[in-house]
Amino acid sequence: MVNYIIKKSGKFLPSKEMKKIAWIKDKKIYKEAEKNPIKFWGKLAREGLKWEKPWKKTYEEKPPYFYWFKGGKLNFCVNVLDRHLDNPNKTALIWVPEPTNEKTIKLTYKELYDKVNRFANVLKKLGVKKGDVVAIYLPMIPEVLIAMLACTRIGAIHSVVFSAFSADALKIRLLDGKTKILIGADGYYRRGKKEDLKKKVDKAIIGTKVKKVIMVNRFNKNKNYSGKFVSFEKEIKKADLYCKPVIMNSEDPLFILYTSGTTGKPKGIVHDIGGYATYAYWTTKWSFNLHENDVLWCTADIGWITGHTYTFYGPLLNGSTSLIYEGTPDYPNYSRWWKIIDKNNIAVFYTAPTAIRMFMKAGEKFLRKHKLNTLKILGTVGEPIDKNAWEWYFKKIGKSRCPIIDTWWQTETGGTLINVLPGIGPFIPTVAGYSFPGTKHIVVDEKGKRVKEGKTGFLVQLSPYAPGMLHGIYKDNKKYKETYFKKFKNKYDTSDGAYIRDGLIRVTGRTDDVMKVAGHRISTAELEDAINKYKLVNESAVVPIPDKIKGQVPIAFVVLKSKSNLKIEILEKQIKQEVDKTLGPTSRIAKVYFVNDLPKTRSGKIMRRILKNVLNKEELKGLITLVNPNSVEAIKKIVENNK
Ligand code: WT7
Questions:
Q1: Which atom of ligand 1 has the smallest separation from the CA of 412?
Q2: Quick one: pLDDT band at residue 144, thresholds 50, 70, 90?
Q3: 516 CA to middle of ligand 1, Å?
Q4: Which residues line ligand 1 (CB under 6 A)?
Q5: Predicted pLDDT at 461
Q6: Are 522 and 100 in contact (CB under 8 A)?
Q7: CA atoms within 13 A on the CB side of 451
Q8: Taking the CB of the first residue and of the last residue of the chain, which one, N or C, has fewer CB atoms within 10 A?
C-alpha cells in the first residue's frame, strides 16, 4: 500500500510518493500567485476552461462589486460535458441507490451529454429562457445533475433546494426566485423507507408562480400526470437529441443557492459562470490532487454548496468521475460507506466532521472487513474538526497513510479558500492551513486592524476577491453590502473567528448568530421565527451548545403567552414539530426550556450570550446592562432542574 505521508520532526508532510503524483509540490506557487493574483487567475482561467470569446478585462472592482473575466464568453455545460466527448465512454457519474438490491448505475460522459441535451430541450419547450430561475427539488439521483446541467446549457439559473427541506422552506425559495418551473420527484429511499416528496411539492407550490412541475419518478417510471405536472421520463423521451448551448457572459449568473444569514429569511447567494467555473476547476484539481482517472466521492448532498462544487461540478469540469449515493450512512448498517469506497475504487473521499464522529461512536466493527486501500486523499468540511475526530479519520479511514485536507469555505465563496495542498502540507489536526494560491486572508480586530500571530480575531478576505466568490445576493444589493462589506472597509467579512500561527490559519467558528448543526448552517433568527409560529408562544431565544456528534445543537428558551394546561413534554414536542414543519428536520431543536422572562437590555434586545453562559455554566458577565437581571437566576434554576 502506498504511503502518501511521512512524519518529520513531529509533523505530517507529503511523502515522496505523494510528491510524485502531486500537481503542486513547490511552495513557490504561493509567492508567484501573490505577486500578481489577477494575472495568475487569468492564466488559470484560460488553461482550465474553454472560452468562446476571450475577456477584455481580467478583473474589475467597483466596491463592493467585482467582476472576473468581463467580456469573456462561454457556456458552462460545454465546459462540463462537450469538451470531454473525445473520451465518450469515460464514466462521469456513478450512482449508488440506497436499496441494496438495486444495481449501481454508471453514466458515461456521452450518455450524460445526451440526456442533458434532451432535457434542455424539454425546458425550452416549456418556455424556459436565458436568465429564468428554475427550481430543482430532487434527492441524490442522476436526474439532479441532468436537470442542473440542462439549465446551464440554455443559460437558465438553477436554484437547488435541499430535498429534506420542508414544503414551507421550498415555498419561500420559489417565491423569492419568482420561479415558474420546478423539477421535483415522487420521492426517494431513506433508511429503507420510501420518502414522499410529491406531498411536499403539492403544498409548496400553492400561491407561487409555478406553472409547470416536471416530476422525476424514482418509484414508478410509468406514472401519468395531469394539470401542472408532467413526467420527466416521458418528456425526455419525446425531446430532440441535440440542444445548442447558449453562449453566456462570464459574469452572468450560473446559479442561486440559499443559505442562512442572521435574519429569519434565507439569502439567495448568486454565483457567476466564468469565475465560479475557474475556481471550481482549479480548487478541485489542486486541493484533492484530482487526476483524470480518479474517482471522487464527496458525500455532501446537492442541496448544499459542497454538493454543487465538489460532488458535481469540480470533478466533472476536470473530466474525472464522481460518485453519489442516495441514502444514509447507516443503511443497512454503518459499513455501507466503506463498502462503497472499496467497490468503486474511491481515490478522494470528502466528508464532514459530523459524519466522522457518528462513525466513531458506532464502533470499529463496521470497518473490519474493508480495505480502503484505494484512498489517496481525505477531505473534511463544514465546521471545525476536533482533534479526536481528525485522528480517528486519519488512522481508521486513511490507515495513517492519507493526508487530510481540512477545507475552510462558505456557500458565499463557491469553493475552498483555506486548506493545505496534498503535495505541500503540513497536515495538522484542527488547522485548515494556507489561503489557496491567489487568494488572501488575514485576521483583524474589531476595528479592522491586523492582529498579531497567535491572536484570535475576525477572518477577512482581501481584494482581489477569489474568482469563486458570490456575485451578490439575489435581488438584494443592500443586504449584500451590509452583510459582507460593512463591518470592515474593503475587506470581505467571513463572520468566522480565526488565528494564524506559523502562517497557518486555524478557524475557530462563527462570530455571528449563525450556528452549524451537523454541518448545516442555520441562524438563531430562523429557528426563533419558526418557534414563534406556534400559537402558544409569546417569544423565544435560541442558542447553540456543543454536541459530541453534531458539533452544535440548538437549545430554545420559550416564554408562553399564558399558562397552558398542556403538559410540558407535549408542548416541547409540538414546538419541535412546528420547527420541523417550517425548516425541515436538519436543525432540530434539542431541548426547550419554558421560562417566564428572557434576559433583555434596556433597548429590548435579547441577550443570547447570557443564555449561552448559563447553559455552559460559564461566568455571568454584563448582568448590569439588563432591565431584568433577576430573570437570569430563574432561568438558571429551570435549566438545573430540567436536565
Ligand atoms: C461556515 C460556512 C464550506 C461548504 C460547507 C459549509 C464553517 C466550513 C470549515 C472548516 C472550520 C468551517 C464556517 C463557515 N466551516 N468549513 N473546514 N473549518 N469551519 O458552507 O453552510 O455556507 O457554512 O461553515 O463557520 O463560515 P456553509
A1: 22
A2: very high
A3: 8
A4: 259, 304-306, 381-384, 406-411, 432, 494, 496, 507, 509-510, 516, 521
A5: 98
A6: no
A7: 20
A8: C
- Centre of ligand 1 to C-alpha 411, Å, is 8
Question: Each residue of 386-403: pLDDT tens digit?
Answer: 999 999 999 999 999 999
- Domains present along the chain, CATH in parentheses: 36-90+109-279 (3.40.50.12780), 518-641 (3.30.300.30)
Give residue 493's pLDDT.
98
**Chain-centre distance for alpha carbon 232:** 26
Q: Which residues of 59-68 are buried (b: 16+ CB within 10 A; e: fewer)?
A: bbeeebebbb
pLDDT band at 475, cuts 50/70/90?
very high
- In order of 59, 128, 441, the CA distances from 463 in angstroms are 10, 36, 9
3-state helix, strand, coil in the chain (%, to 5): 35, 25, 40
- Ligand 1, closest atom to CA 507? 11
Read off the pLDDT band of 445 (50, 70, 90).
Answer: very high
Cell 469515460, located at residue:
90
> What separation in Å is there between the alpha carbon of 408 and the centre of ligand 1?
6
CB-side neighbour CA atoms (13 Å) of 283: 33
Where does 481-550 show beta strands of DSSP type E?
491-501, 504-510, 514-517, 520-523, 537-547
